[in-house]
Design goal:
The protein is an all-alpha fold and 145 residues long. It has one domain. It is built from seven helices and no strands. Helix 4 packs antiparallel against helix 6. The longest helix is centred in the last third of the chain and has 33 residues. The two termini are 17 Å apart.
Length: 145
């Protein structure tokens, strides 16, 4: 079954354009995050979910895809080797800058609880990306044997 999938055109397209697709997902997630975090509360849809949980999910998913992008891209070798560190730095800076920018948005404020939820999500995203890359590496070695 796996060998049949490898021979299909869809698998070839996924393999060929995986870095571009990952970058597209990262950009979309970043734009969504910026819009939702920098709009005044009055303009946001009313959702009955814990705000810290939303921060955690947002940053874990964003970090997961950014880490995979850094891991699979081939242009800069230092990004491949240190993808977890660079993901932590980039997403951590984005998170902190968004929280600081909220000081200038009406009815928004800088909150340390948001930053702690963001960094917890960042760490979970890195751990998930590491686990995913290990599974992919293990499966690719198993197929070679």
């Amino acid at each position: 079954m796996i060998n049949k999938f490898k021979k299909t055109g869809f698998a070839k397209v996924l393999n060929k354009y995986r870095v571009g697709m990952l970058l597209s997902v990262v950009i979309v997630l970043l734009v969504i995050s910026l819009v939702l975090n920098l709009l005044p509360y009055e303009r946001l849809p009313k959702i009955e979910v814990n705000e810290l949980l939303l921060h955690f999910i947002n940053y874990s998913v964003f970090t997961f895809f950014l880490t995979l992008y850094f891991h699979f891209q081939e242009r800069f070798s230092s990004l491949n080797k240190n993808c977890y560190f660079y993901s932590l730095v980039v997403v951590g800076l984005v998170s902190t800058l968004i929280e600081i920018a909220q000081l200038y948005v009406p009815h928004r404020s800088f909150q340390l609880s948001d930053i702690s939820a963001n960094f917890t999500g960042i760490m979970v995203g890195i751990i998930l990306a590491r686990a995913f890359s290990l599974v992919v590496r293990y499966k690719s070695r198993k197929e070679i044997l």
